Structures are given as C-alpha cells and as structure tokens.
Amino acid sequence: MKLDLILRIATKLLLPFILLFGLYVQFHGDYGPGGGFQAGVIAAAMVILYAITFGLEAAKRAVPPAVVEPMIPLGVLLFAGVGVVTMLLGDNYLAYNALDPHNPAHGQHLGILLVELGVLITVAGTMIALFYAFAGRGR
Amino acid sequence: MVLLTLLAAITVGIVRLRNLFGVVVLSGIYSFMMASVLIVLDAVDVAMTEASVGAGISTVLMLTVLFLTKSRETVPTHTPILPLIVAIVTGAALLYGTVDLPPFGAADTVVHQHVAPTYLAEALEKTSAPNVVTAVLASYRGYDTLGEVTVIFTAGIAVLMLLGGRRPRRKNDDQA
What we know:
- The complex is a heterodimer.
- Chain A is 76% helix and 0% strand.
- Chain A is built from 5 helices and no strands.
- Chain A has helices at 5-27, 36-54, 56-62, 65-88, 104-135.
- In chain A, helix 1 (5-27) runs antiparallel to helix 2, helix 2 packs parallel to helix 5 (104-135) and helix 4 (65-88) runs antiparallel to helix 5.
- The radius of gyration of chain A is 18 Å and the shape is elongated.
- Chain A starts with a helix and ends with a helix.
- Chain B is mainly α.
- Chain B folds into 2 domains: 1-73, Four Helix Bundle (Hemerythrin (Met), subunit A), CATH 1.20.120; 109-167, no CATH class.
- The longest helix of chain B has 25 residues, at 44-68.
- At the A-B interface, helix 2, helix 4 and helix 5 of A face helix 3, helix 5, helix 6 and helix 7 of B.
C-alpha cells in the first residue's frame, strides 16, 4: 500500500481540478462546448478516480450511495419540474420565456441553466451508482 | 484520413486480440481517435462527450467488469462463416446507402434548409446562449433532451435493479 504514494498524492492534487473543470464545462456550456451530459460524466469520473485510488469504501464514505441514488430521479424531476413551472406561469411546457416575462432572454438563460443542472445531477448520479454497483459486487 | 486509417487498424486489433484487457484499452484508444475525428469535423460538443463517456467512463466500467470475469476470451466453438456473411451483407447495404447521400459538407442539402438557418439566426437573440448547440439542445429541443435524461434514468435504474446494488433484506428471506 505504501508503493502507491505517488498515485495517491497525484490523485489528491488532481481531484479539485477535475471537479472545477466539470463545473466549468457545466456553467460555460452556454458559451463554449459542453453541458450537463459532459459535466455529469466528468464529475462522476472524479469520484471514480478517487474510488480506484483510495478504495471503494473510502469513496462510499465521501460520496455515500444514499446520496448518489436519489440523484438519479432528482435530476429528471428538476428537468420536468422546470416544464411544470413554466406551465403554471401560463406558457407552454418547457417554454423558458415565462420564467422572466420582462426579459425573455433572461428567462431562457435561467431555464437552460436549471435544465442542464438537472441533466448533470441525473448523469453524475447514474454513473457513480453504476460504478458502485459494478465495483461493489466483488469476487 | 490518417485518423480513419488508425481507426481501421485499431478495429482489426480489437478483433484479433484475445486478451480482453488489451481489447478494453484499445477500445478506449478507439474512442479518443473518434473524438479527434469529431474535432476535425468541428463537432466539439460531440467530441467532448465521446472522449468523456466513450474513453473515460466506459473503459472504467469495462475494467471493473473484467475484474469480475476472466480476462481472456474463450476460443469460439463454432465457425464464424454465418456472422461473416451477415456482417458483409450489412456492410454492403450501408455502403450502398451512402451512394445516395449528398456530398460531404454541402450546404444546400435538405437537412440544412429546414429549421437550421432559423436556429442559427435567432438562437443568440432569443435564448442568450452563444453556443448554438446548447441553445438547440436545452431550449428548442427541450423535449428531446428531457427524453434523453429519462432514458439515462431508466437505464440506470434498470441496471441497478439487475445488479441489486442496495437490497433491503426482508424478514421473509431469512425463513425461506
């Protein structure tokens, strides 16, 4: 276990940057390439890297399955909920203009942000949960 | 062209290798090559997805599966003649299909005439998202994206149920 000192330190150094890059991809998706799908995978990759280096149990302590699994439906609900909110505000389903009637472009911005957040939550949750399920089966 | 040749070479390698660990690594390289091809085609968003999902997550998941199974492919017991015929016929049909496709990069094809010009002209003004891909994905085609997320949700739940991740133990199980 002592032989992988370099791996452990390198992983620890990399983790925040991976998460930061994931968040950049998420919130910069309006301007550059990226969006919820990619950001979700990158965020999941961070947890998986941690699990590979420090062991599954350590990863499960840091990011418990009880948090990960509710993320899967939560993202879909957030996405669908934005549609319901726009309907309650008197517009069509997922018509983000209704979110800010005075400035439709801002409404679109907010809508896209929330929807991408929903995508991020579901994708990251699914990926991490799948990894936990596969890796947790053991021999 | 170089990239496509490398892709073909990697494919041959994947087919010929019996060591599954090597196959997983090669398919990861294949995904990165594919991402490079997509960047050459100016599809940066897709390239990013391919690199992260195809090369990253799939490789890791495949490796964890390999950890559970044997890492050498068993020698097939039946001759590959029939699968070969099916593959050749399918490939020939696909090649025949490409004959009718418009020339690569042509701007006056049907797909570029329908709604794409409207999106390109209006997206920035109406959605305030400079990246048209995001504008189309999240706003114009919001239903489709909701559908995609639902697919991921369904697939994830289904696999988790199959693998039995966290199974609450019921009292009946002990008695049975």
